[in-house]
Amino acid sequence: MEIITSKDNTRVKNAKKLYKKKNRTNSYLIEGQHLYEEALKSGADFKQIFVTEKFADTPDATLISDEVMNFLSDAETPQGIIAEVSLEASSLKPEQLNKLLILENVQDPGNVGTMIRTADAAGFDGVILTAGSADIYSPKVLRTMQGSHFHLPIFRENDALALYQRLKTQGTTVIATTLSETSVDYRTVSQPEKFALIMGNEGAGITPETSVTADILAHINMPGQAESLNVAVAAGIMIFSLTD
């Protein structure tokens, strides 16, 4: 098997550009054995696969030196396998799904990845990110999701309020988490047949417009002295409370 030993190799340099969102027009990079295996199981379309000697038996892979892998990798300790995967839009529409998680302007990649993974674990049908949320194909989000984006559809919506109205028209109950005079204890919220759970920005929470549009405003009581919960922790509580 031929081996690429130069960081100036055109394929390697073009692949590395995919770490930047502006260069991801139709593909993105995944890294590590677990993500590769999840992609493989999901039937993902691989454009190319780069491996070191450790994974030399990977079908259709291109062997690269450790030095080139260190250059190409975004991880502190590269595992030895990086794949370029085609971006594929879901054939489903959010209105067709019964259990949705909506991330409204959630900016921290770790929070985004954790919440998507939690929704996957709880059996949600899909996740929607509004325009102000982190890019799910960034390396940190991909590492935190652990392949959950291969298990459930993830949508991007630029007009959040139009989305909420569209969902409501299709019989979806919109539930937003916020602490206000009109919010109710999340434990009193029964699981609707179709619902969308909105988690807001880490610092600002949901927008004022969303608080007016939502069918239900819910909060998590905190008997201790902490002022707030991490949004991903709060999402975990809410997600599983709606799937019991």
Lay out the secondary structure.
Elements: E1 3-4, H1 10-16, E2 27-31, H2 33-42, E3 46-51, E4 61-64, H3 66-72, E5 81-86, E6 99-103, H4 109-121, E7 126-130, H5 139-145, E8 154-157, H6 160-169, E9 173-177, E10 184-185, E11 195-199, H7 208-213, E12 216-219, H8 231-241
Parallel strand pairs: 1-4, 3-4, 6-7, 6-11, 7-8, 9-11, 9-12, 10-12
Antiparallel strand pairs: 2-5, 3-5
Helix pairs in contact: 4-5, 4-8
In summary, what is this structure?
This protein has helices spanning 10-16, 33-42, 66-72, 109-121, 139-145, 160-169, 208-213, 231-241; strands spanning 3-4, 27-31, 46-51, 61-64, 81-86, 99-103, 126-130, 154-157, 173-177, 184-185, 195-199, 216-219.
Alpha-beta content class = alpha/beta
Number of β-strand runs: 12
- Beta-strand content: 15-25%
Binned, the helix content reads: 25-40%
Shape: elongated
What is the CA-CA span between the terminal residues? 52 Å
Whole-number mean pLDDT: 95
Continuous helix count: 8
Largest sheet, in brief, is:
7 strands, parallel
CATH superfamily of the largest domain: SPOUT methyltransferase, trefoil knot domain
- Under the CATH scheme, the architecture of the largest domain is 3-Layer(aba) Sandwich
Instruction: Tell me the count of domains.
Output: 2
Give the C-level CATH assignment of the largest domain: Alpha Beta
Unreliable stretches? none
Q: Whole-number radius of gyration?
A: 20 Å
CATH topology of the largest domain: Alpha/beta knot
Trace the largest sheet across and list its strands: 8-7-6-11-9-12-10
- Write the H/E string, N to C: EHEHEEHEEHEHEHEEEHEH
Pfam families: MRM3-like_sub_bind, SpoU_methylase
Keywords: Methyltransferase, Transferase
GO molecular function, one term: RNA binding
Domain RNA 2-O ribose methyltransferase substrate binding: 29-91
